[in-house]
Amino acid sequence: MQPIDRFVVEEYLLDVLLFFNGCRKECALYMASLPVPFRYEYLMAETIFSQLLLLPQAPFKPIYYTLVIIDLCKALPGAFPAVVAGAVRALFDRIADLDMECRTRLILWFSHHLANFQFTWPWEEWAYVIDLPKWAPKRVFVQEVLEREVRLSYWEKIKQSIENAVGLDELLPLKGGSNFKYRAEDGQESSPQHALSKDLNSMVKGKVTVHEIVLWVEEKVVAVHGFKCALEVVIQTLLDIGSKSFTHLITVMERYGNVIAKMCPDQESK
Fold first, then answer.
1. What angle do CA 38, 43, 48 make, to 5 degrees?
2. How far is Cα of residue 18 from the mean position of the Cα atoms in its chain?
C-alpha cells in the first residue's frame, strides 16, 4: 500500500465512523465495502483501535466501536476476526507501555467482544502470566478480563472456556452464590419462615398463577406473620430461584414480578 493510498483510505474510514455514528450496521457495511483494489482489513482494525484508545477520550462512546468491530467480524468472517485477534495480541505484548486509561478500555472492549463470540479465545497462549508477579500488567489484564467475563456470563462457563490454559483458573474470581436467608441447613427448617419459603418455592416450580400466589401470601403469610415478613419471604425466595443465572432471574421476575407489585401498592412499601 502506497502512503497516499493509506492516507486516503484512513480518511474514508474515519469519515464513515463519523457520519454513521449511531448506525453501527450501516457503518460496518460501508467500511467493509470501500471501492479499493487492495485489502485493507489491517488498516481498518488499526483505525478503529486508534479511535477506541484515543486520549484523553474516544470521539464516540466505546460501545459504538465495540459493536462496529462485532459487525465487521460477522460481515467479513474469513478475514477480519483474524485481524482483530492479531491486533489484540500486538496490544497485549505492549500492554506495559499503554496508558492506564487505554488498558481499562481495552479490558472492557475485549471482555464484551468475547461475550459475543462464545467466549472463545486461545487462552493457553497466555497461560504463562500465572508465573508473573501479581502486579505485572499482562497478568492484571488477563485477570480483569476474566472477572468481567464472569459478570457477563457465569462462573462455570468461563471456567470451561479456559480449561486448556493450565493454571489460569487461579485468576478467576471466587465463585459466588446467593446469600439466601431461608436456606435449610442439615435438612432442618429453623423457623416458620423457612417453611413458608419452601412452600412458595414449590408453587413457583409448579407454575402456579400470580393470582393464586397473591391469595396465598395474603391469607397464609400476611394475616399470620405480618407484611414485613411476607415481603421478605417473597423477595428472598424469588431472588434465590433466579440466582442460577441472569436468564433464570429474568424468567422468574417476568412471571412473578407482579406478586411483588401487588404487595407494594404505595411508595413506602416499594
1. 140
2. 27
